[in-house]
Amino acid sequence: AHLLCVVAARPNLMKMAPILAALARQAPTVRVTLLHTGQHYDTAMNGQLFMDLDLRPPDICLDVGSGNHAQQTAEIMRRFDAVLDAQPPLAPDAVLVVGDVNSTLACALVAAKRDIPVIHVEAGLRSGDRHMPEEINRVLTDQLSSLLLTSEEGARAKLLREGIAPERIHFTGNVMIDSLRQQLPRAITPAATLRAHGHACPPAYGLLTLHRPSNVDDPAQLEALLGTLGELSQQLPLLFPIHPRTLAGLRLSGLEPLLARHAIVRLPPLGYLEMLGLMQKARLVLTDSGGIQEESTALGVPCLTLRANTERPVTVSDGTNTLAGTQPATILALARGILDTGGKRGRLPPLWDGHAATRIAAVIAPWLAARRGPP
Ligand code: UD1
């Protein structure tokens, strides 16, 4: 059988690496083509991660780059469709997509229209917030998928409510945590990371990331958030690796100098091994990322999510995550609470055990074989 696997943006890579390794190990007869859409293209957002994760270079690159949602999604669809028409035809038996980025939906839509079955890893996550572009991508990708592999237990009920047939859903666990457990021994120490970027390492620090459009695209919202975080930084210095989207927002709104006035240490987007090292030793993580909510739960580090909702509720019910919203007073009170008490300890959610990819391969390989029928 031939499986075409799609990656596109930074958070896809930590998910794909263990899946490819498990398929190579458990299903060596499955031929795997790795396609990169090029949604993320900077070395810091892409190239470094391939090295950190021992991910092999993609077989096909679409080089789509950035654009608004319609342009980016359309361009991915157009180029992916053209690749499937290549001579000789690629003719995959299925297309595997991960996560919730624009490329996930674009490639799922192209495949489904061509009657190529779609496998979605990280299916059934819902924030309930359709203002989030990722939520639209999640809902639609799941509707288009033949096989839905979930990372947390509650996802199943959400998919059933949306009319997905139960036999298509498999709870395989969180593949992001496979990468985390595998790479943690190689994590780079905070002192080394900070030194490499020209800073001294504070004895205690919080780790901050921001990139959601709702937080960084609106200058007033970004300014209010940074004011709050600046105040917190007087008590606990904050390390802030800045996403390109956020940097653009900071520049556009003239807010860059604000960082220097507070104890907010600005860093470029970091490698995976650098990030793991910083997260592991942080007193507190403040983020609007999805993956970092999960990683902080897996590491047992308290996390404040700077959003009104999360599509990963198990990080709140079981893990170390608290939804802090974006109100200054609430964020400060919650952060100070964590500094006083140490914060939520949490426990590891079910099947966040480092073996999700093994279970994924165990579902996919026989499924592909059955669809293909006897040779
Ligand atoms: C995308 C995903 C988001 C994910 C995030 C992780 C969608 C809708 N969003 O958001 O779910 O959490 O990736 O990073 O797919 N840029 C660069 N270099 C790059 C990539 C982006 O400079 O390598 C800049 C460009 O100016 C671009 C902006 O960042 O316009 C946003 O990039 P884009 O891929 O559109 O969305 P993200 O905000 O990264």
Automatic annotation (TrEMBL):
What the entry lists under NCBIfam families is as follows: wecB
Give the EC number.
5.1.3.14
- State the similarity comment: Belongs to the UDP-N-acetylglucosamine 2-epimerase family.
| Gene this protein is translated from | wecB
PANTHER family (UniProt xref): UDP-N-ACETYLGLUCOSAMINE 2-EPIMERASE
Organism whose genome encodes this protein:
Janthinobacterium rivuli
Enumerate the spans annotated as UDP-N-acetylglucosamine 2-epimerase domain: 25-364
Q: Name one Pfam family in it.
A: Epimerase_2
By its UniProt entry, which CDD domains does this protein fall under? Answer: GTB_UDP-GlcNAc_2-Epimerase (cd03786)
Q: Which GO terms describe its molecular function?
A: UDP-N-acetylglucosamine 2-epimerase activity
Record keywords:
Isomerase
What is the name attached to this protein's record? Answer: UDP-N-acetylglucosamine 2-epimerase (Non-hydrolyzing)
* The keyword Protease is assigned to this record: no
